[in-house]
Amino acid sequence: MTWWCTGLQWSGGRPVVGWYGEGRGERAGVLLYGQRLAFVARGERRCPGVRRAGKRTPCPVRAAVSGRTASAQCPECARLDRSFSVAADTNAADPRTYRVYLAWFGPGLVKVGITAEERGSARLLEQGAVAWAWLGRGPLMAARRTEELLRAALGVPDRIAYARKRAVRTALPPAADRLGEVAELHARAAALPGWPQSLERMACEVVDHAGPFGLAGLPPAVRVLTGMVPGAVVAGVLAGAAGPDLHLADGLVVDSRLLAGWELAVPEPAAVTAAPSVEIPSGGAPVEQDGLF
Question: How far apart are the C-alpha atoms of 34 and 288, rounded to whole Å?
Protein backbone atom coordinates (compact mmCIF):
# COMPACT_ATOMS: atom_id res chain seq x y z
CA MET A 1 0.00 0.00 0.00
CA THR A 2 1.43 3.36 -1.07
CA TRP A 3 1.28 6.33 1.28
CA TRP A 4 1.87 9.75 -0.26
CA CYS A 5 3.32 12.64 1.75
CA THR A 6 1.02 15.65 2.17
CA GLY A 7 3.65 17.87 3.83
CA LEU A 8 4.28 19.35 7.25
CA GLN A 9 1.30 20.23 9.44
CA TRP A 10 0.93 21.58 12.97
CA SER A 11 -1.29 19.76 15.44
CA GLY A 12 -1.56 20.58 19.12
CA GLY A 13 1.41 22.92 18.80
CA ARG A 14 3.65 20.17 17.41
CA PRO A 15 4.95 19.48 13.89
CA VAL A 16 3.58 16.38 12.18
CA VAL A 17 4.02 14.93 8.70
CA GLY A 18 0.80 14.10 6.87
CA TRP A 19 0.24 11.04 4.70
CA TYR A 20 -2.54 10.01 2.34
CA GLY A 21 -3.31 6.49 1.12
CA GLU A 22 -5.91 6.15 -1.60
CA GLY A 23 -8.84 4.22 -0.16
CA ARG A 24 -7.25 4.32 3.31
CA GLY A 25 -7.65 7.96 4.26
CA GLU A 26 -5.08 10.08 6.06
CA ARG A 27 -2.67 9.68 8.93
CA ALA A 28 0.01 11.79 10.56
CA GLY A 29 3.38 11.10 12.16
CA VAL A 30 4.67 13.31 14.99
CA LEU A 31 8.18 14.74 14.56
CA LEU A 32 10.58 14.91 17.51
CA TYR A 33 13.53 17.27 17.72
CA GLY A 34 16.70 15.20 17.96
CA GLN A 35 15.12 12.49 15.80
CA ARG A 36 17.10 11.22 12.80
CA LEU A 37 15.21 11.53 9.51
CA ALA A 38 16.05 9.59 6.37
CA PHE A 39 13.89 9.32 3.26
CA VAL A 40 14.12 8.83 -0.48
CA ALA A 41 11.64 9.94 -3.18
CA ARG A 42 10.12 7.21 -5.33
CA GLY A 43 8.28 7.28 -8.65
CA GLU A 44 6.72 10.57 -9.75
CA ARG A 45 5.32 13.43 -7.74
CA ARG A 46 1.52 13.34 -7.94
CA CYS A 47 -1.16 15.91 -7.14
CA PRO A 48 -2.67 15.13 -3.70
CA GLY A 49 -6.06 16.64 -4.58
CA VAL A 50 -8.06 19.00 -2.37
CA ARG A 51 -8.63 18.87 1.39
CA ARG A 52 -11.76 20.55 2.75
CA ALA A 53 -13.54 20.25 6.11
CA GLY A 54 -11.11 17.58 7.25
CA LYS A 55 -11.66 15.36 4.22
CA ARG A 56 -9.39 14.87 1.22
CA THR A 57 -10.76 14.51 -2.31
CA PRO A 58 -8.11 12.83 -4.50
CA CYS A 59 -7.07 14.36 -7.79
CA PRO A 60 -9.28 12.56 -10.37
CA VAL A 61 -6.40 12.08 -12.81
CA ARG A 62 -3.52 11.74 -10.31
CA ALA A 63 -1.73 14.42 -12.32
CA ALA A 64 2.07 14.50 -12.35
CA VAL A 65 3.56 17.66 -10.81
CA SER A 66 7.02 19.24 -11.04
CA GLY A 67 9.33 18.36 -8.17
CA ARG A 68 10.51 21.97 -7.86
CA THR A 69 7.22 23.79 -7.23
CA ALA A 70 6.08 24.74 -3.72
CA SER A 71 2.53 23.61 -4.45
CA ALA A 72 1.95 19.95 -5.16
CA GLN A 73 -1.49 20.61 -6.68
CA CYS A 74 -2.23 20.44 -10.37
CA PRO A 75 -3.83 23.59 -11.91
CA GLU A 76 -7.35 22.10 -11.79
CA CYS A 77 -7.17 21.12 -8.11
CA ALA A 78 -5.52 24.44 -7.23
CA ARG A 79 -8.40 26.34 -8.85
CA LEU A 80 -10.93 24.24 -6.94
CA ASP A 81 -9.04 24.85 -3.70
CA ARG A 82 -9.01 28.61 -4.23
CA SER A 83 -12.76 28.62 -4.90
CA PHE A 84 -13.18 27.99 -1.15
CA SER A 85 -10.35 30.30 -0.09
CA VAL A 86 -10.83 33.20 2.30
CA ALA A 87 -7.37 34.46 1.37
CA ALA A 88 -8.47 34.70 -2.28
CA ASP A 89 -11.71 36.49 -1.28
CA THR A 90 -13.82 33.79 -2.92
CA ASN A 91 -15.83 32.93 0.18
CA ALA A 92 -17.08 36.29 1.46
CA ALA A 93 -20.27 34.74 2.90
CA ASP A 94 -18.34 32.62 5.43
CA PRO A 95 -20.38 32.96 8.69
CA ARG A 96 -17.55 32.04 11.05
CA THR A 97 -15.86 34.41 13.48
CA TYR A 98 -12.42 35.59 12.38
CA ARG A 99 -9.46 37.03 14.23
CA VAL A 100 -6.98 39.68 13.11
CA TYR A 101 -3.37 39.19 14.18
CA LEU A 102 0.12 40.69 14.07
CA ALA A 103 2.89 38.21 13.26
CA TRP A 104 6.62 38.84 13.79
CA PHE A 105 9.23 36.81 11.86
CA GLY A 106 12.39 38.84 12.48
CA PRO A 107 13.55 42.43 12.96
CA GLY A 108 11.38 44.57 10.70
CA LEU A 109 9.56 41.50 9.33
CA VAL A 110 6.01 41.95 10.61
CA LYS A 111 2.71 41.26 8.86
CA VAL A 112 -0.98 41.57 9.60
CA GLY A 113 -3.43 38.82 8.73
CA ILE A 114 -6.69 37.07 9.56
CA THR A 115 -7.61 33.51 10.48
CA ALA A 116 -10.78 31.66 11.46
CA GLU A 117 -11.17 31.76 15.24
CA GLU A 118 -11.85 28.01 15.38
CA ARG A 119 -8.32 27.35 14.11
CA GLY A 120 -6.70 28.97 17.13
CA SER A 121 -2.99 29.66 16.61
CA ALA A 122 -2.52 27.01 13.89
CA ARG A 123 -2.20 29.64 11.16
CA LEU A 124 0.63 31.38 13.04
CA LEU A 125 2.52 28.10 13.43
CA GLU A 126 1.98 27.27 9.74
CA GLN A 127 3.44 30.62 8.70
CA GLY A 128 6.46 30.35 10.97
CA ALA A 129 5.56 33.37 13.13
CA VAL A 130 8.18 33.63 15.88
CA ALA A 131 6.06 36.03 17.96
CA TRP A 132 2.49 37.22 17.50
CA ALA A 133 -0.58 38.79 19.12
CA TRP A 134 -4.31 39.00 18.44
CA LEU A 135 -5.72 42.41 17.54
CA GLY A 136 -9.45 41.77 17.26
CA ARG A 137 -12.26 39.35 16.44
CA GLY A 138 -15.50 39.59 14.49
CA PRO A 139 -17.25 38.80 11.17
CA LEU A 140 -15.12 37.99 8.12
CA MET A 141 -15.62 41.23 6.21
CA ALA A 142 -15.00 43.36 9.32
CA ALA A 143 -11.79 41.41 9.93
CA ARG A 144 -10.76 41.90 6.30
CA ARG A 145 -11.43 45.67 6.43
CA THR A 146 -9.41 45.91 9.65
CA GLU A 147 -6.55 43.99 8.06
CA GLU A 148 -6.47 46.44 5.13
CA LEU A 149 -6.69 49.46 7.48
CA LEU A 150 -3.79 48.31 9.61
CA ARG A 151 -1.67 47.23 6.67
CA ALA A 152 -1.92 50.69 5.13
CA ALA A 153 -1.62 52.68 8.38
CA LEU A 154 1.26 50.71 9.90
CA GLY A 155 3.11 50.15 6.65
CA VAL A 156 3.23 46.36 7.11
CA PRO A 157 2.50 43.78 4.39
CA ASP A 158 0.02 40.90 4.39
CA ARG A 159 2.62 38.49 2.97
CA ILE A 160 6.30 37.79 3.66
CA ALA A 161 8.26 35.33 1.54
CA TYR A 162 9.47 32.16 3.27
CA ALA A 163 12.98 32.82 1.95
CA ARG A 164 13.13 36.06 3.99
CA LYS A 165 11.79 34.33 7.10
CA ARG A 166 14.29 31.47 7.06
CA ALA A 167 17.22 33.81 6.29
CA VAL A 168 16.88 35.49 9.72
CA ARG A 169 15.35 32.70 11.81
CA THR A 170 18.62 31.33 13.23
CA ALA A 171 19.99 34.73 14.32
CA LEU A 172 17.11 36.39 16.15
CA PRO A 173 17.28 39.03 18.91
CA PRO A 174 16.36 38.05 22.50
CA ALA A 175 12.75 37.19 23.30
CA ALA A 176 12.22 40.45 25.19
CA ASP A 177 13.15 42.47 22.11
CA ARG A 178 10.82 40.63 19.76
CA LEU A 179 7.95 40.70 22.24
CA GLY A 180 8.51 44.42 22.70
CA GLU A 181 8.36 45.07 18.95
CA VAL A 182 5.02 43.25 18.68
CA ALA A 183 3.62 45.07 21.73
CA GLU A 184 4.67 48.45 20.32
CA LEU A 185 2.94 47.73 17.00
CA HIS A 186 -0.14 46.45 18.83
CA ALA A 187 -0.39 49.75 20.72
CA ARG A 188 -0.04 51.75 17.50
CA ALA A 189 -2.73 49.65 15.84
CA ALA A 190 -5.12 50.02 18.78
CA ALA A 191 -4.76 53.81 18.65
CA LEU A 192 -5.78 54.07 15.00
CA PRO A 193 -9.23 55.46 14.12
CA GLY A 194 -11.54 53.76 11.65
CA TRP A 195 -11.85 50.26 13.10
CA PRO A 196 -15.16 48.61 12.08
CA GLN A 197 -17.68 48.76 14.94
CA SER A 198 -18.47 45.05 14.56
CA LEU A 199 -14.88 44.08 15.34
CA GLU A 200 -14.15 43.44 19.03
CA ARG A 201 -10.75 44.79 20.16
CA MET A 202 -8.46 42.35 21.96
CA ALA A 203 -5.89 43.17 24.64
CA CYS A 204 -2.21 42.71 23.84
CA GLU A 205 -0.96 39.26 24.86
CA VAL A 206 2.18 38.45 22.89
CA VAL A 207 2.94 34.75 22.29
CA ASP A 208 6.44 33.48 21.49
CA HIS A 209 7.02 30.30 19.47
CA ALA A 210 10.65 29.73 20.45
CA GLY A 211 9.65 26.54 22.28
CA PRO A 212 7.40 24.92 19.65
CA PHE A 213 9.91 25.76 16.89
CA GLY A 214 12.96 24.59 18.83
CA LEU A 215 14.69 27.92 18.14
CA ALA A 216 17.24 27.50 20.92
CA GLY A 217 18.74 24.49 19.16
CA LEU A 218 18.72 25.73 15.56
CA PRO A 219 22.09 25.74 13.80
CA PRO A 220 22.86 28.47 11.23
CA ALA A 221 20.84 27.82 8.07
CA VAL A 222 23.38 27.01 5.34
CA ARG A 223 21.43 25.41 2.50
CA VAL A 224 17.78 25.03 1.50
CA LEU A 225 16.12 22.23 -0.44
CA THR A 226 15.09 23.35 -3.93
CA GLY A 227 13.21 20.27 -5.09
CA MET A 228 13.01 16.50 -5.14
CA VAL A 229 13.71 14.04 -7.94
CA PRO A 230 13.21 10.26 -8.05
CA GLY A 231 15.95 8.62 -6.02
CA ALA A 232 16.86 11.83 -4.15
CA VAL A 233 17.77 11.28 -0.50
CA VAL A 234 17.44 13.59 2.49
CA ALA A 235 18.99 12.49 5.78
CA GLY A 236 19.94 14.21 9.01
CA VAL A 237 19.01 15.01 12.59
CA LEU A 238 15.94 17.23 13.04
CA ALA A 239 16.96 20.29 15.08
CA GLY A 240 13.71 22.28 14.80
CA ALA A 241 10.81 23.29 12.58
CA ALA A 242 8.99 26.52 11.75
CA GLY A 243 6.13 27.00 9.32
CA PRO A 244 6.74 24.48 6.51
CA ASP A 245 10.50 24.32 7.16
CA LEU A 246 12.40 21.45 8.75
CA HIS A 247 15.82 22.52 10.10
CA LEU A 248 18.43 19.76 10.14
CA ALA A 249 21.48 19.79 12.41
CA ASP A 250 23.89 20.11 9.46
CA GLY A 251 22.32 23.44 8.40
CA LEU A 252 20.07 22.09 5.64
CA VAL A 253 16.54 23.55 5.63
CA VAL A 254 13.94 21.24 4.09
CA ASP A 255 10.94 23.13 2.73
CA SER A 256 8.35 20.43 3.37
CA ARG A 257 6.02 21.85 0.71
CA LEU A 258 8.41 20.21 -1.77
CA LEU A 259 7.82 16.80 -0.16
CA ALA A 260 4.03 16.83 -0.66
CA GLY A 261 2.90 14.55 -3.47
CA TRP A 262 5.85 12.18 -3.26
CA GLU A 263 5.99 8.60 -2.11
CA LEU A 264 8.75 8.73 0.50
CA ALA A 265 10.49 5.62 1.73
CA VAL A 266 13.42 4.59 3.93
CA PRO A 267 16.53 4.70 1.69
CA GLU A 268 18.84 1.75 1.15
CA PRO A 269 22.14 2.04 3.05
CA ALA A 270 24.04 2.60 -0.20
CA ALA A 271 21.76 5.43 -1.43
CA VAL A 272 23.83 8.61 -1.75
CA THR A 273 22.00 10.84 -4.26
CA ALA A 274 21.43 14.05 -2.30
CA ALA A 275 18.30 16.09 -3.00
CA PRO A 276 18.96 19.38 -4.87
CA SER A 277 19.70 22.39 -2.63
CA VAL A 278 21.25 25.85 -2.81
CA GLU A 279 23.21 27.95 -0.35
CA ILE A 280 21.31 30.46 1.80
CA PRO A 281 22.90 33.94 1.64
CA SER A 282 24.54 35.05 4.89
CA GLY A 283 22.60 37.57 7.01
CA GLY A 284 20.25 35.75 7.19
CA ALA A 285 20.94 16.17 22.99
CA PRO A 286 17.77 14.04 22.66
CA VAL A 287 18.27 10.43 21.63
CA GLU A 288 18.33 10.02 17.85
CA GLN A 289 15.75 7.72 16.27
CA ASP A 290 16.52 6.22 12.88
CA GLY A 291 13.92 5.81 10.17
CA LEU A 292 11.36 7.54 8.06
CA PHE A 293 9.78 10.55 9.84
Answer: 5
